[in-house]
Design a protein that fits this description.
This protein is of the alpha+beta class. It contains 13 helices and 23 strands. The chain is elongated, with a radius of gyration of 28 Å. The structure holds calcium ion (4 copies) and zinc ion (ZN).
């Protein structure tokens, strides 16, 4: 709870305030529109609309409830005519685990709308849906999304779970978060006139500030985000909502808050996260995952920490192949290794997916900051004054002036609030201004469609590469009376293996099984060289072979079978489905 003691008086004194941004409340219908961001209620409505439009292909499930009791919804896309979802390679997609990183919701909805709308029209989409299934959770942090829209925020706030936490350890919980002092629905920045300040007014545009040079007279001190000292402890905004970070809360490689800030008291402290982990864990066919964040334009893969160790080489080859293609689909994005090229994280959801579920996965940090560059507005380097800091961290050479001119020229000034005087209870005469909530990490609405389409296409390129395994009985050869040599070939026409090398190395779950039944199998094993008759026979239970099929590769087996008549060869894989073939021994 933020206590706004005396604030009502302050607000009443304001000459005027901008109206809070009102969500679009038009009814949601299919095909969905991508000209605005969907408040949480609209996300739910969109899922319901998709389910209503495509009842045979979609299932809606409540994964669980959030810490504030809101449902976390998942949509499964599966064509039941081509088999049960669990018997096909599964593609998992989620978004908005960080409450403020809302685009993942729109990307998820776009992906669903696109897949379902194109089924039966576009051949590739039709084939893809017929052989795979999609599990899509558009909004993981439902409380976060709700509050991001409904509460005053800045582009970087409201990331966490709604788990009250005493951040400054003063015995009071969430007692002093930012306050929307001017009541415009945004948490902007505060600055105060100060001849000893580190900033002065930018001579090129009075709305911006630039750092003073050594010896130069200062003009402004930046006081930080809008807020007052709510609890009178001499600190401002020191203990806001939470903070428990839902993407530092997962059970693999979790570390306590003194190692990983925001990790919470123990893993899966968030009830919704725990429910999601349990739900996904039952989807044993999840082969590939994408999880959407903002911002900066990055396609990240694990590992999340150096000492976890690099993934085995065969997996890296697949990651690189798919990741580099995703870079082409997403201009301005860079394919990167998260610990090495970004930063170390403990307990994130991608590492959980790869290390405990044996899937391959990527994080897309959508929205390269320079997508809002106004070309040639300024040749200045990054000027983070008054900025949320994120653009400075990830912006890649775009200046605040460029972004400001973008706001002026392509959003009619809506992304940036000019500085306005304000009487602050502690600081006295100050000014409030800067980037608004729906800026900086979120594309301007006219750019949403491009962003969601390209990200959905990156998902689909990788999804097309989930294993497509075929089983062929290449030979049934009579060796002597009632003794046959049977050879099989499992071939994978796609890039992703039927089981990652990492999952095999760590023995995460049972390997693929190739089984011969219907006659007595005397010997069976993997063929090393088919011409030199090199077979590594398995000592026990030769009729059952544990195996895996590499990406763009094959694996061959040989069985010596005693008997006659029909035998069955069956293949069963968590990630590559089930196949059964019957052949005659004759
Ligand atoms: Ca506190
Ligand atoms: Ca707190
Ligand atoms: Ca305090
Ligand atoms: Ca305080
Ligand atoms: Zn994030």
């Amino acid at each position: 709870m933020k206590k706004l003691i005396g604030l009502a008086v302050v607000i009443a004194l304001l000459a005027f305030s901008l109206p809070a941004q009102k969500p679009d409340v038009s009814p949601i219908s299919v095909p969905l529109r991508f000209d605005h961001y969907y408040p949480l209620d609209q996300v739910y409505a969109a899922l319901t609309a998709l389910n209503k439009a495509y009842p045979a292909m979609t299932t809606i499930e409540e994964v669980g409830k959030s810490d504030e009791g809101r449902p976390i919804m998942a949509m499964t896309v599966n064509n039941p005519k081509t088999g049960a979802a669990l018997n096909k390679p599964g593609v998992y997609v989620d978004g908005n685990i960080h409450g403020n990183e809302i685009q993942g919701g729109e990307i998820s909805l776009y992906l669903l709308d696109y897949l379902l709308g194109e089924y039966g029209k576009n051949e590739e989409v039709t084939a893809l849906i017929d052989r795979t299934c999609f599990y899509v959770v558009p909004v993981v942090n439902v409380d976060g999304r709700f509050h991001f829209f409904s509460d005053p925020n800045n582009p970087g706030s409201n990331r966490g779970l709604r788990i009250p936490t005493d951040d400054d350890h003063d015995g009071l919980i969430d007692e002093d978060g930012p306050d929307d002092l001017d009541g415009d629905g945004n948490i902007c920045m505060m600055r105060k006139k100060d001849p000893f300040g580190a900033y002065k007014t930018d001579p090129d545009d009075p709305r911006l500030m630039v750092p003073v040079k050594p010896g130069e007279k200062g003009e402004w001190t930046i006081l930080g985000e809008e807020g007052i000292d709510n609890d009178g402890d001499g600190k401002i905004n020191e203990d806001g909502e939470g903070y428990v970070d839902p993407n530092r809360q997962w059970g693999f490689d979790w570390a306590p808050p003194y190692v990983q800030s925001g990790s919470g008291e123990y893993p899966f402290r968030g009830v919704g996260l725990k429910a999601l982990a349990e739900w996904t864990f039952k989807k044993t066919n999840i082969t590939l995952g994408w999880t959407f964040h903002n911002n900066g334009g990055m396609i990240l893969r694990g590992p999340s920490r150096k000492n976890i160790g690099e993934f085995p080489a065969p997996d890296v080859a697949v990651y690189d192949y798919l990741g580099k293609q995703a870079e082409r689909i997403l201009p301005g994005y860079k394919y990167m290794i998260s610990w090495k090229d970004l930063y170390t994280t403990y307990g994130d959801s991608l590492e959980w997916l790869t290390q405990t579920m044996g899937a391959m996965g990527y994080v897309s940090e959508v929205f390269p900051s320079d997508s809002e560059k106004f070309k040639g507005a300024s040749d200045k380097p990054d000027a983070p004054a008054g900025d949320t800091g994120m653009a400075a961290m990830m912006g890649g050479g775009i200046s605040e002036m460029d972004r400001l001119k973008f706001s002026d020229s392509l959003a009619m000034g809506e992304l940036y609030k000019p500085w306005k005087p304000f009487k602050h209870p502690q600081y006295g005469d100050i000014e409030i201004g800067g980037w608004v909530k729906m800026s900086s990490r979120l594309s301007a609405p006219f750019m949403i469609k491009d962003l969601v389409h390209r990200n959905a296409m990156a998902v689909l390129f990788t999804a097309k590469n989930v294993p497509a395994v075929s089983l062929e009985v290449t030979e049934v050869k009579q060796v002597s009376k009632n003794l046959y040599r049977v050879r099989t070939r499992l071939a994978n026409s796609k890039a992703i293996p039927s089981m990652t090398a990492l999952a095999q190395k760590n023995n995460i779950y049972p390997k693929d099984m190739l089984k011969v039944s219907g006659a007595k199998v005397l010997a069976g094993g993997i063929i090393g060289d088919p011409y030199l008759e090199q077979v590594a026979y398995k000592k026990y239970k030769p009729e059952l072979q544990f195996t895996s099929v590499p990406g763009f590769g094959k694996v061959e087996h040989q069985f010596l079978v005693e008997g006659s008549g029909p035998i069955t060869v069956s293949y069963e894989s968590r990630h590559a489905g089930k196949i059964t073939k019957t052949v005659e021994l004759k």
